[in-house]
Amino acid sequence: MYPISTVLAVDDEPKALLLLRNLIEPEGCRVLLATSGAQALELAAREQPDVVLLDIMMPEMDGFEVCRRLREDPVLAQIPILMLTALDDRESRLRGLETGADDFVSKPFDSIELRTRVRTIIRLNRFRRLFEQRARFEAAVTHSPDGVVLAELDGTIIHRNPAFAGLLEAAEPAPSNLFAHLPADIAAQARADSIAPHTRPGPLEASLLGAKKTVLTVEVSAGLIPWEGRSIVLYTIRDITERKTLEQQLLRSQRIELLGQLAGGAIHDVNNILGVISGCAQLIEMKGEKDRQLHLGQITSGALRAGSMLRQLLMFARGDGGEFVTASLTGVAEEVAQMVKETFGKQYAVEFVAPADLPRVRADPTQIHQIILNLCVNARDAMPDGGKLTIAMEARPIAGGIKAIMGDTPAPGQYVVISVRDYGTGIPPEVLPRLFDPFFTTKPKGKGTGLGLATVIRLVRLHQGFVTLETEVGKGTCFSCHFPVDPAAAV
After folding, report:
1. What is the pLDDT of residues 7-17, one digit of tens each?
2. Is 1 among the domain residues?
3. Chain segment 197-215, per-residue pLDDT in tens
4. Which of 91, 213, 249, 466 is the most buried (most CB within 10 A)?
């Protein structure tokens, strides 16, 4: 269905304008009337008509001048102009063509001829615009830095741009189906997302098969578009390999920062353990066989405890992340709780609460470690003189209407929630809008980089989850991270 065409009729004679309107409106056109050249230019600039019917003989500004000015305007230069003239001499027609007129109709004009001319010009103008739109679309696709693929619903490629071809190994014959370039599970998800009604699915991350690079991670976005009486899918394929590498480096750097903050407590506890081991060894030397088994047991217990503490710190430092598995998060959260209990110091009472048989989620355990540990470090900093810190887990159904941080809109469903609560200073209202901004921190210089909470929100979103916050100045803060239950594990 084409939009209604607009015709601008220009004549200094009111009767002539009325005649033009009565002739053109039955063609289904919207007719604008101008009685002078200046009014015509004003209407043309505001309405951008599809065709101009322009009388030549007008006072102050004749049709030749109006035509010349229209052609000088970059926005209006392509509007078709049909000159209406009582002058039938060759010189007038040549002058009209020189100023940019497309055609002429002599007065008195034949109504059928005029309608036919207008109808033809409008149709040709519509085809010109469609051609220009297609040329702009093709130029945008061709020069896009991202790979662009037009494909049938089954993945059969209709068109691909040079950027997509540039991602693939030139020596390999390019498959004619986009899904052949994607892992089977991602291809199935992309196919399902492309035909999902009334939704705009988020991008999918995948390794591109047959790629020029050994490791190439891409982000695939899909959307239905009309195409020659049917729907096809527009896929955008963006190379995010460098971004993923930088993200991993940033996460590791942030883990090192966390380890630095934990190091003081760890060193203190290890020194205490070494003191116990050294004392027991001296007692064995002094007392010989007396209480030997008791002292050896204390030495063994201390060595195991110190080894466990250092091993947990080392494993956290080495963790690369990125491997998503379906598992219970209870063990992960309990490990962090134990690490926090051993490194924060005796002035902090760490409580871990989790019911049995929590649903499983699809998650990266190393990243879950990092989320909880970041929140625990923030909780510790909010209680500089010590206090109670609670790590709690629960299963919670979400029906909608939840007020999530950063404007996230949670999808309804079943979630596993990990909450970290402190009873410290709370967060002032003026700080809340910037709380999750990267590099924003309220800590003194040298005490923090401002990446902790920014890392938390990014990693939770990476797990398709969201974060809620409860805080009151002087009474404490609770961050709750919601992770969707894996539907496959729930069956």
Report:
1. 899 998 888 88
2. no
3. 555 556 888 888 877 777 7
4. 466
